[in-house]
Amino acid sequence: MTGGWRNALNLARLMAKGKDLKAITIRSIDLHTVLLPYLAPFETSFGAETDKVAVLVELATDAGVVGWGECSIELWPGYGYETAVTAEHILAEFLAPAAVGETLADPRDFPALIKRFRGSHHARAGLEAAVWDAFAKTNDMRLTDCFAHYAPAGHESEERATVGVSIGIQPSLEATVAVVSERLAQGYGRVKLKIKRGWDVELARAVRAAHPDILLMLDANSDYRPEDAEHLAQLDEFNLLMIEQPLSHDDIYHHGHLQKRLKTPVCLDESVKSASDLQIALQVGAIGILNLKPARVGGFTESLEMYRICAENDLPLWIGGMLEIGVGRAANVSFAALPAVNLPSDISATDRYFAADLTEPAFTLGPESTLAVADGYGIGVEVQRDRLEAAKRRWREQNPYGGA
Ligand code: OSB
Ligand code: MG
Hints:
- By secondary structure, the chain is of the alpha/beta class.
- Helices cover 36% and strands 20% of the residues.
- It contains 13 helices and 15 strands.
- It has helices at 3-16, 84-99, 110-113, 121-138, 143-149, 173-186, 201-210, 229-233, 253-261, 275-283, 300-313, 326-336, 385-398, and strands spanning 24-44, 47-61, 66-73, 103-104, 160-162, 165-167, 190-194, 215-219, 243-244, 266-268, 289-292, 317-319, 359-360, 370-372, 382-383.
- The longest helix is centred in the first third of the chain and has 18 residues, at 121-138.
- Magnesium ion binds next to loops.
């Protein structure tokens, strides 16, 4: 992009900031449940997943603008308790009917429309993402600029998100070191390894021995107990960027005790599900770094509030991933390009996940381990209808729950 054009755009954005934008009226909401094979299975402490499952939300406004959102879930209720079937049920029976016909002058007013329904954060985040995309497109804005518009004063999109790669549990230490080396050769500047009880200290030792200087971190996905603190303290010698969610998915408090025992910063993922949880974690000293997943916290409005809290408290922040399809990936890159997202995010290039994604263009890894925000209004990527239909068919044919 040329400097002159970019400067004019920035000036327009500065003038727009704080001003009201054009409202949207939600005319219809269509749900598409899709199944898309991963290039390789992804194994964590709670199990292995072979395919991405997602409910894609297609929202049309009265003016004919179409917004897309992704409910990032998994085949098994391992990370969270939602599945494609529960997300579909909650969306179709409750959330979508409460949204259709409503007019929004500010996308942050959306959560109030569905406030009377509790839980199902991933389902509500998918619908809210479609609202944000439609709202940005209605106002001829990229989604990243729309987020910046509602971020604290002076926070403008940085155009690129700095990213890393999350590596699942491999069959051996040698296999892990080989995958790490391959990802580094591809240009990833930060590596996250999944760990579980019995697959931790020797893993960190082997990868550190092979790569003494890389940015390295571990993610336990809640596998440890408070009494494992002594054991986990052995990880301090490996100069890790952080250890993510060592203790239970619903435990904030004991992470505070653990952090006192560890030099390695504790990063919370699963157990921080809202801005309120984040305040509690800060108050009890349970959090050194936040992994913010818009899907986990119920959407981008709550994410923006948590972003503000991180910025105010100088809490290091990055955006987590759920191995999303392009719809969710594009929105997450748009958010991760905000300036207070100051550690590498778990958003890798399309070819780390899929042979062919459902959207175009693909995300490719750029210089210094970055992904560029997609050009174009809203999420900036286009759903490919033929691939969408094929992925819906795959879901209908292979639905492991045997549902209709
Ligand atoms: O804990 O961060 C996690 C994927 C599925 C469920 C939970 C997690 C993950 C990842 C994937 O680590 C990160 C990515 O999307 O690349
Ligand atoms: Mg995690």
